[in-house]
Amino acid sequence: MRIHIKDPQVLVRKDGLFAVEKKDVFIDGERIAALGEAPEGFAPDKVIDGTDKLVMPGLINLHTHHYMTLFRNIANDVPFHEWLFDNMMPREDHLTEEDCYWGTQLALIEQFRTGTTCFNDMYIICDAAARAALDAGSRAYLGRGLVGDENDDGGRLQMALEEMERFRGEPLLRFTLDPHAPYTCSPGYLKKIAAEAAKRDLLLHYHLSESEGEVQTIREKYGVMPVVHADSLGLLDQPIILAHCVMAQPDEIPLLAKPMVSVVSDPASNMKLGNGFAPVPRMLKAGVNVCLGTDGPASNNALNLFRDMTMMALVHKGLTKEPTEMSAQQALAMPTVNAAKALGREQELGQVAEGFLADLIILDLNAPELLPHNDILSSLVYSAYGTEVETVIINGNIVMENRELETIDEERVRFEIKKRTGIFG
To answer: Checking DSSP bridges between strand 25-28 and strand 2-6, what pairing results, if any?
Structure first.
C-alpha cells in the first residue's frame, strides 16, 4: 500500500537530537519512501490529512508481560516478594493458552491506543503471544520466561525453540531467549541459555537487580552483586536486554555500559512495588543505553509509554533535585532510538526517516493539553497522555485510524476478558 500523509508536522532526528519539521511523509509498502517531496511516479492508494497532526516514530515497549492484563489490579499495595511469589506465580500456574491470547489482545488494544507499535514480551505459554501479535498486526519480540537449572527446566527451553520454528519467517515477529532472573535460574542454566542464544544469534532478555531481596539472595548464594554475577557468567558479553537494574551500584554501572548491553527502566512498576529507582542519570553519563518499558500490567498497572516517559523525566529531576537532569530529549529517545539500538535495528526502527520501516503514529496537535505549540517536542514528554494518538501504522499497514481499531475485534476481546473476570482474583 502507498500512503501519503499530507501537511503534517514530523518528529525527525537531526545531528543526534529530535526536531519538529513540517514535511509530507510518503510510505511505499513496509517502508518510508521519502520525506518532503514525493518519489518520482508515486501514486498514493491513500491520502491522510496531516493538518494539525504530528507524525512520529511508533514507541517501543522494551519490557513487558502482556498476558498479565488478566491480573491487572490484583495484589496491589503489597511488598514485591509477596506480590510475585504469593500472588502472581500461583495464578500463572492456572493460565491456559487461550487465557494468554486474550490477555495479550487486550494489552494490544491499550498499546495501539497509546502509540506503541512494538513490544518486547516475556511470556509463559508458547504461541499465545505470537498469535495475538500476528492477528493484531503488531511488531513483537517474544521470549518464553525460562526458569530452572541445566538439568531440569520443565522442557521450557525446548518449547521456546520449537515455537521459534513454528513462526519462522513471520516478518513482524522476532524471538529472544529469556532467562527469568538470577534467583530462578542456576548459573549453569544461565550459561546454557547464553550459549544457545549465541549459537542462534538471538537476543537475551533478563530481569536483573530488581529488588533488595534479590540482592540479598544473590550475595548470600554467590558472594557478589547481581550485575557482577551476570557478568561473571558472560551474559554481558553478548546482546542482552536487562530489565530494571534498580539496585545497580556505582561500581557495577561500567559493566552495564558494555557495547552489547541495554538496560530497560520501568519507573511505574518499580515505584508501585516499592523497589526504588534505577540510577538512570548516572547510567546515561556512563554511556549505558537506557530504554523504557512498562513492565507487565499487573505491576504498572498500565501499558502507556507516554505516561512512563513523563514519570521517567519527572522522577529523576525530583530525586536529584536538579531540573536539568533527564531532559525531554533523553526521555523521548528511550522508547525510540535507544530501543531500536537495543534490538540491533537502529538503521530501520525508532525514527521517521527515508528507508526506515513505516512504524509510525499520528497525534492530534489540537488536543487541549498540547496547546499552545510553544514546544511540541517537550509537550510529548511533559503534557501528552497518549490519548492524542489517532492513527497507528505498523510495517506500512494501518492498524488504527481515527481511534478506530482495524485489526482487533474489541467487542470480542471485552467478551473474552469479562468471561475470565474473577477467575484469577
So the answer is: antiparallel
Residue 274 resides in a domain? yes
Residues 75 and 88: their CA atoms lie apart, in Å, by 8
Q: Is the domain of 296 the same as that of 386?
A: no
Does residue 204 register a pLDDT over 90? yes
Is residue 398 in a domain? yes
The whole-model pTM stands at: 0.97
What pLDDT does residue 342 have?
98
Q: How many domains does one find in the chain?
A: 2
Give residue 252's pLDDT band: very low, low, confident or very high (50, 70, 90).
very high
Q: What is the pLDDT of residue 400?
A: 98
User: Domain for residue 163, yes or no?
Assistant: yes
Around Cβ 41, how many Cβ atoms within 10 Å? Answer: 5
Q: 361: which residues sit within 8 A by CB, 6+ positions away?
A: 55, 56, 57, 58, 59, 115, 117, 389, 391, 392, 393
Report the alpha-carbon distance of residue 79 to residue 236 in Å, rounded. 29
Which residue, chain included where needed, has cell 538512570? Answer: 280
The DSSP result for 289-334, as a single string, is EEEE----TTTS----HHHHHHHHHHHHHHHHT-TTSS-HHHHHHI
State mean pLDDT over 36-50. 97
C-alpha span between 233 and 207 (Å, rounded)? 15
CATH number at residue 279: 3.20.20.140
What CA–CA distance (Å, rounded) separates 370 from 28? 30
DSSP letter at 38 equals P
User: What band does 421 get if pLDDT is binned at 50, 70 and 90?
Assistant: confident
Residue 139 domain boundaries: 59-342
pLDDT given at position 422: 76
Position 410 in a domain: no
Q: Which residues of 337-363 are buried (b: 16+ CB within 10 A; e: fewer)?
A: bbbbbbbebbebbbbbeeebbbbbbbb
Per the DSSP assignment, residues forming a β-bridge with 263 are 242, 290
Q: What is the pLDDT of residues 122-170, one digit of tens each?
A: 999 999 999 999 999 999 999 999 999 999 999 999 999 999 999 999 9
**312 and 225: one domain?**
yes
